[in-house]
Amino acid sequence: MRRWLIAVVAVGVLWSIGLAPSGAREIRQGDQCIIAARETIEGNLFALCRTLSIRGTVTGDVIGAATDADITGKVEGDLYLAAGQLDINGEIGGSVHFIGPVLRILQSAQMSGSRSDLMSLSLSTTVEGGTRIPGNVTAAGYQLVLDGSSGGEVNFWGSALTINGAVGGTVEATVGDPQSTGVSQLQTLLVPFSWEVQLVAPGLVVGEGGSVEGSLRYTGPAEGAIAGQVSGETSFTQIAIQPDLAQIINAEQEGGLRVYLLQAAREFILLVVFGVIGLIFVTRPLQVPLRTIQTRVLPSLGVGLLAFIISFPIALIVVLLIVLFIITLLLLQFDTLVVSLLSGVLLGSWAGALSVFYFAAIFISRMITALLLGRLIVRTTIGDDGSTRIAFAGLLVGATLVALLISLPTVGLILNAIAAFLGLGGILIGILVSIRGARERLYSPMARMLPNRSPRATAPAYPLPPPLPEDVPSRPGMDKLPPGFRWWDD
């Protein structure tokens, strides 16, 4: 469902950029972009700014990205925005589509459309009391605080859902564990940022002033606190959570031990399946990252960690560059259908590249680490004769060890990250070394000077001149003189 939400937001952005009627367009970019209170922009507004403030009127849609944004004026169309924090205190005629850490719809905000929806992918989404969302509310992130009202359904995937207003439709939610103690640590991590957000405890809360006209269906580790009125049925589906280390060690917690063993079994199956495929079909390429990790353990770990961290901003930057490229084509009056097809190809290709990278970072990297550990253990205990039997034995041993370690609570997350970063770094360094070697072989001066070794006729050998007779005395300086030459005194 999270992938569905991201896809819907992306499709909305592409529709607004590529398929909207070719009317008036306004582009704002720079450090501060301010639409003055008496200013009216006819048509769509494209913005790429550090600070975006809309105090006037935009008759079309607003599409853009900003570090901080606030809307106190009026947007007659839809809003598609990626920002660090967005505060809406004005009027929105269409729907709101937001991606970023913090979204706040303040109490004086107004969504004037008859079916205006709210779609948010954020750390925190807050709808203050006095604000009404005419359509549906769809959110994914850590928390959704709905103090206002919604005329349609509410769909939420995250940790904390609080409803203190009226919901006109059904509520479907996936929430976290109310007994979790990690909220304070997460709030501490947000201190360096200037976002105005107060995180609430995980779980579902329907306050005394909250009401749900339809059904309430939610999933989580524990039941929520429902003090308000639910007109339809209430359905709760409990999910098992990973127990802590003390529960696993305690013999009375047999259920916790069973969950741990099931998690380890799933990890073992995944590692073995990918390992068998690699040993059968890509045996030689698989040896490159294995040798790299053996000789460069710390560099592999560092490269893997750095590559995984910077992959997220790089992914966002490339998407923004693609969007800017599409906007440029539209400004140059390219055909709308061609631009739409090109945008689909570019975004589809980039999405495929990201899928391959994260698949390798999450699954293939851990398999490589497991294969390396198993090979070292087998080589130390029974030896290594280079046979296929030893290779598969190492895979089984390594997969068992890694699966048991990364399934441990708390410490397992750290070990899982180390295994993934180590394998990812080995893959990336191996690829770079292979590319560098290929370039050196291709562009090396010695390679260009090597003779062509293709079969051809052998050149005839020329005879060497006969050696000079050693018994003929020669006067100094008299060799190599022309015939008949005589000195002046001769």
Number of domains: 2
- Number of H/I helices: 10
Bin the helical content.
40-55%
Multimerization status: single chain
Provide the gyration radius in Å. Answer: 34 Å
Strand content: 15-25%
Low-confidence stretches: 1-23, 454-459
Task: Please tell me the overall pLDDT.
Answer: 82
The chain-level structural class is alpha/beta
Per DSSP E runs of 2 or more residues, the count of β-strands stands at 23
Shape: flat
Largest sheet: 13 strands, parallel
N/C terminus separation: 113 Å
Provide the descriptors you would attach to this structure in a database record:
single chain, 490 residues, alpha/beta, 13-stranded parallel beta sheet, disordered N terminus
Could you walk me through the main structural features you see in this protein, from its secondary elements to its overall organization?
This protein is an alpha/beta fold and 490 residues long. The chain has two domains: 2-240, no CATH class; 246-438, no CATH class. The chain has helices spanning 2-19, 183-189, 245-249, 254-281, 283-295, 297-331, 336-381, 388-406, 411-443, 445-449, and strands at 25-35, 40-41, 44-54, 57-58, 62-71, 74-75, 79-88, 91-92, 96-105, 110-111, 118-127, 132-133, 137-146, 149-150, 154-163, 166-167, 171-174, 203-206, 211-212, 216-220, 225-226, 229-230, 234-238. Strands 1, 3, 5, 7, 9, 11, 13, 15, 17, 18, 20, 21 and 23 form a 13-stranded parallel sheet that branches. Strands 2-4-6-8-10 form a five-stranded parallel sheet, with no helix packed on it. The radius of gyration is 34 Å and the shape is flat.
